[in-house]
Structures are given as structure tokens and as C-alpha cells.
Amino acid sequence: MTAEELGIGIGWRAEIDLTVERLPGVEFVEVIAESLRPARLPESLRVLRSKGIPVIPHGVGLGLGGAEPPAPEGLAHLAACARALDAPLVSEHLAFVRAGGMEAGHLLPVPRTRDALSVIVQNVRQAQAALPVPLALENVAALFGWPGDELTEAQFLGELVERTGVGLLIDVANLYTNQVNLGLDAREALDGLPLDALAYVHVAGGHLHEGVWHDTHTASVPPDVLDLLAELCARTRPPGVLLEWDDAYPSDAALAAELDRVRRVVSGG
Amino acid sequence: MPDVGEGGPPDARARLAAAQRELLAALVAGGPGPVGFDERRLAIQAASLIAKRRGLVALSAPDLVGSLGGEFPALFASYAEGRPKPPGGSRADARAFADWLAPGPAEPPAPRRRGFWSRVRETRRARRAST
User: Fold this and answer.
1) How many helices and strands (H and E) does chain B possess?
2) What span, in angstroms and rounded, lies between the C-alpha atoms of A232 and A202?
3) Which residue of B13, B16, B38 to mutate against A (max A Cβ within 10 Å)?
4) pLDDT digits (tens, 9 = 90+) for A107-141
5) Which of B20, B28, B49 sits opposite A66 (nearest CB)?
6) What pLDDT score was predicted for residue B127?
7) Are A91 and A56 in contact, with CB atoms under 8 Å apart?
8) Which residue of A78, A245, B10, B60 shows the fewest CB atoms closer than 10 Å?
């Protein structure tokens, strides 16, 4: 194991709770914060914590890339999750999820303008002030781009890191998605990102449908995404790498094999 | 909130709010496509949001979805196109979809609960009949 700090992990989901407990070599997990009740943690997470496995609350609903400041109750929930799990950090997304009273039900990309950046810097600072542990922000997968972007995603995230001290959760599958769908060069993105702020990394599989990559988290990680992980490892030693699998769960053996593939890339083998 | 002048966060918030509202309305509420976006990509994103909603509704209301069989995806698409996800998450979405399928009272009227003494009388009748 060459990764420091966190190691190799997998997204904990209620549907695969026993699998995650039993999988060999799981060194940390992530749990969707909105699915948790901090006062009544699932037995499986308590078992993992008792074994010393770090559990990172991963928020999907704050909408830190939105025009509204993050909701105090959402921040309080994320903070309570962090305390209940004694988490070393929490993570969320550079995305907006609602606007004008409408819910997207999904993580949508933000316009990468200096104007939007000034708002999102404030949102992130408000979130940081309400959280008991450091926050890391994840780059999202996009099916479309905004016209009039002034900054690349790497520059936008770099500015956020510079001005707020936020950490980065780099999803290399999302970089790959944006490369396929929007022609944004993933290696250039890795070159431009401030990797000293790297908190950990996501990998996942998806599906190509009519020329568009859908980051579904329901398939084996494609070689192209593992190649990007290797590119990232050539630039820095990631503190942790986590496999996301969200539905259409395969056998325990298949998940263990997936983690082995990730581990081999991280250890340079 | 302190006003930091032209271009400062209060104005920037209003501009970001307007841009995101217009885009989201196009994606989930049948609004016009905002200028400058790739319309085909917005259509793919809109369809993807509906597919995600459909998956969550299938988890929330398996009986309803099972009863629709292979018709479910097309019916759900007709329901969801131009209709944002209601507040209350996927269970509310499932209820709204059920209402859309069969307009009428949202909940079937609760059966009148029988009074306690009607049950006492019935029990006594049954015991007498069996002896």
C-alpha cells in the first residue's frame, strides 16, 4: 500500500453493507451524508468505526455552487455526521442542485466565470465556518458546458483552493467524462490542478451511449479511467483512492477484483 | 449584508441565480433553452435527469411500477417532461406520478373503523354459534 493517510476505499451503501465490511483491504469508506441519521448510525458503520476504518460523510445536496448560500440545516446535518463518525474530513461538490424553487435531483456544473466564483467562494467559506473538520470539494461530471466560461475547471478549483483553503476531491472518472463529452483534456486538467490540496480521489465506471459518456457508477472502471489515475499518481501520491459503485451491484468477488485493479495502479504495479 | 459595490457578491448572486434558474427551467420545467447552450446536450441532460428520477421512483413505489410493467418508462417520461420534481423527494414524486396516472383522490378514503362494541357483539355471536 503506497497511498498515505486514507488508502484504498469504497463507497459504503446500505445495499452492500456486509460486503463492504467483509471486503479485504478496505482502508476507508465514504457515506452519502443525506442518507444518514447521525443519532442512529447504521450498525455496519459502527462496526467499521470500531475497526478503526475512517468514514467520510459525502454530501450531495448542499449545492455549494448555487446562487443561494448553503442552508444552515444542511450544514448542521453534515457537521453532525462528521461528529458522529469522528470523520477526518467531509466532502461535497462544486455543483448546483437547485434554483428558482426547482430541484435538479442531480449535480449540475456551475458557470466558470469570475462573477460566479465570487459567490461560490462565499458559499464555501460559510460551509467551512459551520463544519468541525476540513471540507474537500469534488469536480463533477458534465453532459453540457456553459457558454462564456472564463476559467477552466482546474483554474476555477485552483482559485477556490487559493481563496478558501478548501481541499480537493478529484474524481478522475468525472475528468474522463468531461473529456469524452466536452473535449476537455483530462491530463491538462491534472496539470493545472493544485494537487497539494488533494484530499482523496474517486474512480468509477460508466457507459458510453451514442457518443456520450454517462458516469453511472454501475460498471467496472474502464482502462481509460485507470490510466488517468496512473497519470495522477505520476504527479502526486494520492492520500486515498475510493471506488464508487451505486447500483447494479456485482458479486463480492467482482468488487474485490475492482479494488485490486485500483490498488495495482496506485502502487505502480 | 454589506454592499461591496458593482460586481460584488450581492449583484453576483442575483446574476448567478437568474442564470441557474433559466437553465434549470429549461432542463426540468419545459422552459426555453437559454442562449448559447448546445440544445442537443441540454436535451440529453434533461432526459438523464428524468431517467434518474424514474429510477428513484421505481425504488420508492415498486408495486405501482410493477403494475405498469414495460409501460413504465414511457409513462414516466410523459409525466416528468416539463414537470419539476416536487418538494418532498422521490416519494412525493412517486405520489404525484400515481395521481397523474389516475386523477382523483390522492388517498383512498379510509374504511370506517368499526366500533368497539360491534366487535364485542360479533365475538359473542360467534361463540354462541359454536357452542
Assistant:
1) 6, 0
2) 11
3) B16
4) 999 999 999 999 999 999 999 999 999 999 999 99
5) B20
6) 86
7) yes
8) B10
- Asked if A166 and A128 touch (Cβ cutoff 8 Å), the reply is yes
Whether residue B99 has pLDDT greater than 80: yes
Strands A102-108 and A55-58: unpaired
The larger pLDDT score, comparing residue B106 to residue B17, is at: B17
Q: Do B49 and A106 touch (CB under 8 A)?
A: yes
Cα(A74)–Cα(A43) distance, integer angstroms:
23
Q: Is A214 on the interface with B (CB under 8 A)?
A: yes
Q: Please give the radius of gyration of chain B, using alpha carbons only, rounded to the nearest integer.
A: 25
Tell me, what amino acid is at A82? A
Residue A111 cell numbers, joined:
458557470
ipTM of the complex: 0.93
pTM: 0.88
Per the model's pLDDT, the better-predicted residue between B121 and A39 turns out to be A39
